[in-house]
């Protein structure tokens, strides 16, 4: 058996790109070594220059494109390569949808290879117009000399990229952020920096209701007291008449998490109003809500299709957030119960259920594993369980709980094909995978959501 050749940093070689990696990079093989090449597309032949060499793989940059893919296009964003927030703007949208389906298949091949021939992975559901779709921006704020900037960190870096225009964001979110950062500079309000303990403002969060037009602004600060606070609030109010909620969230921790635990209302309402399909929702500053409402409707329709409710079934919506998925299903369910670890989300969910006229819902604060156990002890096991977990997937205790209480039908919505496939290793002990439906929630990026229908083995 041939040994792997040792690859060294700086080494150059021709490379044929075989597929797309989970982070949107091209993947090729050189003398039995896996090589990841940022910006390379499947089918391309490039001259790769190694930037990092590891025992099992190497990372490289494109030195030259020897044979370009017919799916390569010029990215329309001027800071595309510097920003790193998008990974696939240099690929046609049609090809993005094909590659996202393949990312799901690749994950299955890695974790449940034996089951791959038996699992139907459907074509990715895309957008008609895959731009300006994000309803919320969370831009970090920093001081660069005398200038206040706001944006995202460059990939694998602590360098903040100042973003004045982002073509995947709804334009109003970047416009308001730009105005606020100019006013922060004008008022000389101290800006947070890891090296500056006296800094106050660390993040500007702007969310807009795509259907209602209502706008929510949240300033994340290290402390409640802030100079020129009233003046700043009055300025923000004047930016756009649709701003109906201004809040201040306190996050004094050295953490990558955006929000702290405490939020104060500075102006207007504590929530903004938004609609999804026939449903209406009130969203507080920290409440989770899907970032792409147009695709969310497609996603929830797929969850509804998989749940196949007839009006007789009980449903549990784990990780329920403000109740969106459970309420989408409530019209065809006997009862919907949901839980979440964020108390404000549960309060929002209760209000949203009432607002939409549903009395067959119950929302509780806590973890899914705790409540599923508690309800099982009370004699309640849901007919249908639906989950939409974070990128880390289902935690081990929840997986164990699901495998023991065995809901008949299980709809798993995932934002990470790798953790979905890893969880399927365990779930397929008692469930059959009927199909997987990818949905493109984040065009121009390497992210893909997938709705998986699992049914209890007979």
TrEMBL record:
Transmembrane segments: none annotated. One of its GO terms (biological process) is rRNA base methylation. The keyword DNA-binding does not apply. Residues 6-64 form the TRAM domain. One of its GO terms (molecular function) is rRNA (uridine-C5-)-methyltransferase activity. InterPro entries: MeTrfase_TrmA_AS, MeTrfase_TrmA_CS, NA-bd_OB-fold, SAM-dependent_MTases_sf, TRAM_dom, U5_MeTrfase_fam. Keywords: 4Fe-4S, Iron, Iron-sulfur, Metal-binding, Methyltransferase, S-adenosyl-L-methionine, Transferase. S-adenosyl-L-methionine binds at residues 290, 319, 340, 388. The active site is at 415, 415 (nucleophile). Its EC number is 2.1.1.190. Belongs to the class I-like SAM-binding methyltransferase superfamily. RNA M5U methyltransferase family. This is 23S rRNA (Uracil(1939)-C(5))-methyltransferase RlmD.
